[in-house]
Amino acid sequence: MSEHQDVAQGDNGASVRESSVNRQKCMKPMSEEDTRTASRYATIREVLRNAIVSGAAANGLVLLEAPLAELFGTSRVPVRKALNLLHEEGLISRFDGRGYLVNPDAGEVEPLRLSLSHKQFGLDSSEELVDTRPLGERIHDEIGAALSACIAFGHYRLDEQSAAQHYGVSRAVVREALMRLRDRGLVEKEPYSQWLAGPLTAREITEDYELRACLEPEALRQTAPQLSRETLEAMLARVIQAQNAEQCSLEEIERLEDDLHQQC
Questions:
Q1: Global pTM value
Q2: Which SS3 state, helix, strand or coil, does residue 112 take?
Q3: pLDDT digits (tens, 9 = 90+) for 186-241
Q4: Domain spans of the chain?
Q5: In whole angstroms, how far apart are CA 70 and each of 53, 116, 117, 130?
Q6: What is the dihedral of CA 208, 19, 38, 9, to 10 degrees?
Q7: What is the number of alpha carbons within 13 Å of residue 192 lying toward its C-beta?
Q8: Domain 2-17+133-197: which topology?
Q9: What is the dihedral of CA 99, 102, 107, 108, to 10 degrees?
Q10: How far is residue 78's CA from residue 219's CA, in Å, rounded to a whole number?
């Protein structure tokens, strides 16, 4: 039986949970390597399943552990687990040769031996299929994203032990992530006290924008001589396009943020 583990507890008793994250109950937390393997096999299974169900993966396509492990940038262990689950689900089948066949209809199909690539599964060749970042870095990003979404709604207390159990890691890993988030101003902690986050008030947002309005123009003036004219004109064109658009997509906003805070 799986359960959701609380990462943060609000003053009103409401809990902040990572969406759609279930973990198998156990007597002790998984090691970091076990956690990485678990998350990777789930990702591999999802990618392959979507390709099979959508028809992107051709019927009869031969699935072998080694080529799939190379494609996903992992060891064979998570690939083997993912294939076993797909076989139990009836989406792939065994045959006389090595590996499995894509066979969602459980019919008679001829083995189709092709070089396994992004194309065989209807994926973009530039798409990174598995998150290979260190576990501590992923936890930092996930907790940061959860906090960014909830601090507008109140004041929250973060419990290191609950977060460690949720992610299956030590408290030291969680503490390191929270200390990095403190440097970003997302959480705060006094000596011998608890980690706190929020609330994000309208006054704080206004003060933040006032500070940025003072600092960013000067930062741009100092950086501009180091950038080519073509780069600056392309950035300016994207800003003008966003200003004239009725609505900007999340990708367009992120590109503008990248232009300003990463490229400059």
A1: 0.43
A2: strand
A3: 899 988 888 999 888 888 888 888 988 998 889 888 888 888 999 999 999 999 99
A4: 2-17+133-197, 32-121, 202-263
A5: 23, 9, 10, 11
A6: 70
A7: 0
A8: Arc Repressor Mutant, subunit A (1.10.10)
A9: -50
A10: 46
Q: Which residue has the tokens 């367009």?
A: 252
What would the CATH number be for the domain defined by 32-121? 1.10.10.10
Determine phi and psi for 169, rounding to 5 degrees.
Answer: -130, 175
Do residues 112 and 58 lie in contact, with contact meaning Cβ atoms separated by under 8 Å?
yes
Q: How many CB atoms lie within 10 A of CB 240?
A: 10
Give residue-wise pLDDT tens across range 228-260.
Answer: 999 999 999 999 999 999 888 888 888 888 888
Q: Which amino acid is at 152?
A: A
pLDDT at 131: 64
Angle between helices 135-150 and 160-167 (to 10 degrees): 120
